[in-house]
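STRUCTURE:
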């Protein structure tokens, strides 16, 4: 359905020029969403896929081990959309105090994303609702260090920003002027808390994501926080018990169409087209996440069975195998610390795992050798090398 402009333009003066900045109308959309049979069916499919994904999480023998790596994959993908070059391996090396193969600021941004998600989930567990306070706190962690640390972490912007272009005058989109941000964000908070009317959680996540990206309330980190908001909403409303749904890979794959849809919502009110895209993103991503979880579960079980057949060395090798599920790039020293095994026992076990083809050495040196649980890493890496 095409509607009129979903807000208004106001004149904003910034960087020595006047530009038209867009101020969005409050949610929910008016007139209401036109729920065609096709759109309703797509949302039903997305909800079924989310239910399957949530049930998969209960079947994993060690959910925390899987989630540890899956969250890091999402951090890499979400940061890639913003232009960082850090890979999953770079992040794991950084967390081990090893030198990554990319600029330190890139991998620091990815590490901050992991910390920001953890902080947001902790706040929810402590009873804080999805609110402006929660978003500011999560943003403060997201930009705590690295390139964005000078961009007022945890504070709404006090100056005009823009998206695309080299200056406001040639930007592809100019968000609301800074003095409109508190009111716009206050209205968004009301919507998130079911005022003036209740909204089902998946629809709420879809609408709120667009609104947040349109307001662009911070000087930096808006894209990453806008994607985190989706996951936090689903966890807050118990649609997912653990944060296993991330849409960054889908948004990255269809990046141009994603931005076109955001623009169409603002200018012609085509919320239905956006909602269809969003539901498809949830459906595809939830299905892929469930398949990845099952594949990794089967992979680690097969490897565990192979290790169990090596005889007396099996118990220590199994401990190393389990440790490398949580830390699939590791040194013998880090594995010794994680398992409590002596360095000699760890090195012997690593030798056994190498002979089985489960572990590969990444370095050719006598000390500080790096080892990789290669197939595990390769499975998680799928999709992280897509071109921008």
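SEQUENCE:
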């Amino acid at each position: 359905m095409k509607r009129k402009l979903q807000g208004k333009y106001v004149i904003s003066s910034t960087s020595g020029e006047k530009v038209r900045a867009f101020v969005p109308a409050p949610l929910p959309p008016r007139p209401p969403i036109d729920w065609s049979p096709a759109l309703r069916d797509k949302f039903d499919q997305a909800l079924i896929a989310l239910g399957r994904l949530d049930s998969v999480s209960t079947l994993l023998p060690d959910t925390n081990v899987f989630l540890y790596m899956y969250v890091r994959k999402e951090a890499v993908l979400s940061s890639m959309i913003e232009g960082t070059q850090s890979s999953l391996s770079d992040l794991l090396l950084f967390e081990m105090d090893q030198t990554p193969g990319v600029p330190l600021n890139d991998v620091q941004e990815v590490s901050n994303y992991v910390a920001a998600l953890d902080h947001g989930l902790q706040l929810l567990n402590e009873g804080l609702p999805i609110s402006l306070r929660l978003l500011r706190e999560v943003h403060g962690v997201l930009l705590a260090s690295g390139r964005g640390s000078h961009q007022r972490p945890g504070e709404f912007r006090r100056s005009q920003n823009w998206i695309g272009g080299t200056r406001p005058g040639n930007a592809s989109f100019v968000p609301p002027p800074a003095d409109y941000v508190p009111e716009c964000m206050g209205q968004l908070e009301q919507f998130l808390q079911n005022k003036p009317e209740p909204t089902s959680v998946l629809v709420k996540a879809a609408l709120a994501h667009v609104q947040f990206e349109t307001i662009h309330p911070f000087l930096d980190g808006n894209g990453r926080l806008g994607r985190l908001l989706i996951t936090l909403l689903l966890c807050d409303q118990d649609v997912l018990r653990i944060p296993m749904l991330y849409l960054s890979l889908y948004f990255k794959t269809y990046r141009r169409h994603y931005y076109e849809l955001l623009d169409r919502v603002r200018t012609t009110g085509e919320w239905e087209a956006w909602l269809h895209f969003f539901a498809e993103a949830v459906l595809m991503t939830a299905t892929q996440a469930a398949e990845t979880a099952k594949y990794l579960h089967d992979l680690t079980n097969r490897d565990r069975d192979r290790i169990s057949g090596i005889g007396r060395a099996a118990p220590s090798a199994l401990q190393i195998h389990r440790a490398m599920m949580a830390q699939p790039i590791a040194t013998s020293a880090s594995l010794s610390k994680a398992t409590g095994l002596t360095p000699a026992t760890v090195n012997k076990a690593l030798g056994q795992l190498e002979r089985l083809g489960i572990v590969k050495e990444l370095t050719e040196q006598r000390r500080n050798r790096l080892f990789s649980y290669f197939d595990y890493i390769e499975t998680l890496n799928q999709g992280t090398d897509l071109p921008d």
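REMARK: The CA atoms of residues 4 and 333 lie 62 Å apart.
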